[in-house]
Amino acid sequence: MSLSGKTAIITGSNSGIGLGVARELAKAGANVVLNSFTDRDEDHALAAEISKETGTSARYIKADMSKGEECRALIEKAGACDILVNNAGIQHVAPVDQFPVEKWDAIIAINMNSTFHTMAAALPMMRKAGWGRIVNIASAHGLTASPFKAAYVAAKHGVVGMTKTVALETAQEPITCNAICPGYVLTPLVEAQIPGTMKEYNMSREDVIKNVMLERQPSKEFATVEQLGGTAIFLCSDAAAQITGTTISVDGGWTAL
Ligand code: NAD
């Protein structure tokens, strides 16, 4: 599958899954736009490194996905958007009655609302180009729930619902909109929730990984960012032209339980 000549914007892509997906899309020939809310030399260096490795054009554009106008500005600044990967996301783990309101607001804004804003800005560009692929990185938590993750589960279910709606709105156009639902992938986001989960369950780090995280992942293995990149490339391929409004789980069997 060659994505040569296509511009792919990946939100939240200076780390973890976003960066992994961006690398895979660039290897497949896409010109990628990396993004996060920081504007450090190392952010721009990541784009330069991808360009050098793949011979494609890679850029880094700062935009804070918690702010609607910045989500839309990211798409405008990129100037083209054939492939949109909504990936930016954060997590916070707490019982619902103790869930900090500012964390709730931030998770809903970054994990869910940003997807609405970027899709709204990107769709006119895709229509003009006569082709488009939207890949929303939801989660197994977009299909099922876990305790202590009220905001995250709400946001990811919202992303799955929004994905179906946009697919219906674009069904008769050469544009598809799907969600990938990963199980656990060992990224900085997952690392960061280990201490909170250790506290909630009163467990060691090893027990949280084995008995809480991978307990629900029947394969007993983390999914990898390369596997998620490969799934995104498949959704961009001609073979997936009639796949729209659905979810693809990359979760080692979690949602089969
Ligand atoms: P990560 O922390 O490594 O990456 C998150 C990315 O989002 C980073 O690049 C970060 O800079 C960016 N980001 C955070 N706040 C932002 C903001 N306000 N504006 C712009 N960018 C922002 O985490 P990850 O595990 O790679 O997660 C990426 C996505 O995958 C998230 O949406 C997450 O919910 C989802 N996901 C992750 C897992 C997993 O196990 N790691 C499982 C299912 C779904």
Q: How would you describe what is shown here?
A:
The model has no long low-confidence stretch (mean pLDDT 97). Strands 3-2-1-4-5-6-7 form a seven-stranded parallel sheet, sandwiched between helices. The protein is built from eight helices and seven strands, in the order E-H-E-H-E-H-E-H-E-H-E-H-H-H-E. It is 47% helix and 14% strand. The protein is globular, with a radius of gyration of 17 Å. With 257 residues, it is an alpha/beta fold. The chain has two domains: 7-184 and 223-250, NAD(P)-binding Rossmann-like Domain (Rossmann fold, 3-Layer(aba) Sandwich), CATH 3.40.50; 186-222, no CATH class. Strand 5, helix 5 (150-169) and strand 6 form a beta-alpha-beta unit. Residues 12-18, 35-37, 64-66, 87-90, 110-111, 137, 139, 182, 184-185, 187-190 line the site of nicotinamide-adenine-dinucleotide.
Features:
8 helices; binds nicotinamide-adenine-dinucleotide; 257 residues; seven-stranded parallel β-sheet; 7 strands; Rossmann fold; alpha/beta; single chain; 2 domains
Strand order of the largest sheet: 3-2-1-4-5-6-7
Main beta sheet, described?
Answer: 7 strands, parallel
Write down how many β-strands occur, each being a DSSP E stretch of 2 or more residues: 7
The first-level CATH class of the largest domain is given as Alpha Beta
The CATH architecture of the largest domain: 3-Layer(aba) Sandwich
Topology pattern, helix = H, strand = E? EHEHEHEHEHEHHHE
Multimeric state of these chains? single chain
Q: What is the residue-averaged pLDDT?
A: 97
